[in-house]
Amino acid sequence: MQTNTDTASQTILVVEEDDVIRTFLADQLTADGYTVYETADLQRAIGLCASALPDMALVDVNGGSGRSFAATVRAGTGRGVDPRLALILLGSVPGELDAVRAFDAGADDYVLKPFSYTELRARVKALLARVEMHSRSTPVIAVGDLRIDIAQRQVTVRGRQVHVSRKEFALLRILASEPTRVFTKSELLRTIWGHRSTGSTRTLDSHACRLRHKLGAHGDRYVINVWGVGYRLADWPTTNAAGEQLAQAS
Fold first, then answer.
1. Is residue 240 part of a domain?
2. What is the CATH number of the domain that holds 26?
3. Three-point CA angle 205, 207, 213, nearest 5°
4. CB of 192 closer than 8 Å to CB of 50
């Protein structure tokens, strides 16, 4: 299948209860060169926003739950979820009121069903172009000698690039959101992997261990294991690239 190189690096999350519509959107967007994640579950969608780091989410209003999802994203209450995530809500109620409510909840755009895929595709492309333009000014999060460029998804320590996997980046991004706060294992597993309980899985510990070794190759101490509780990133507050403090130590 031929891939559109302009969209090859862009990721879209499709949140739709209707299996037919969800599959159709996933197939068409994939054919247009996007990387697509799909789910019918809004709780899992929040986890995917943190772990898969999509550039955009297409979300069915679905009686109001889609608006709740948008409000959660914009409020910044979803751990590791970028509150600036591009959002298009898909509604099925004709008239202005449903559209106004979607925008009030934080949607960047609203599309009424049944929709023309050609029109939706154009709206997706236009919104992603605006996101790309704004992302160039995204501040770099700094914790000690660690720099995390959210827009470019790049990690450096002491100026040297550190290659991390997508899940490792998702874990790092969450920990960096409040670097001195201890995130419990259950909330990290729920947010990044969608696990509802810790059970006997060693997935989190394995990723945290690999990330710790990668970031600590030159003696730096990051990804601290708080025994019996979870993980925190470090003992320093977060700053942006200009050195302005963004978060206080708890």
1. no
2. 3.40.50.2300
3. 100
4. yes
6 in any annotated domain: no
29 shares its domain with 105: yes
For the chain, the average pLDDT equals: 83
Q: DSSP state, 10?
A: -
* pLDDT surpasses 60 at 248: no
The predicted-structure confidence for 62-72, as pLDDT tens digits, reads as follows 877 899 999 98
> Quick check: 208 and 164 in contact, CB under 8 A?
no
Of 73, 77, 43, residue with least CA distance to 57: 73
Q: Which residues of 199-236 are buried (b: 16+ CB within 10 A; e: fewer)?
A: eeeeebeebbebbbebbeeeeeebbbeeeeebbbbbeb
Q: Quick one: 130 and 159 in the same domain?
A: no
Q: How far is Cα 144 from Cα 160, in angstroms, rounded to an integer?
A: 14
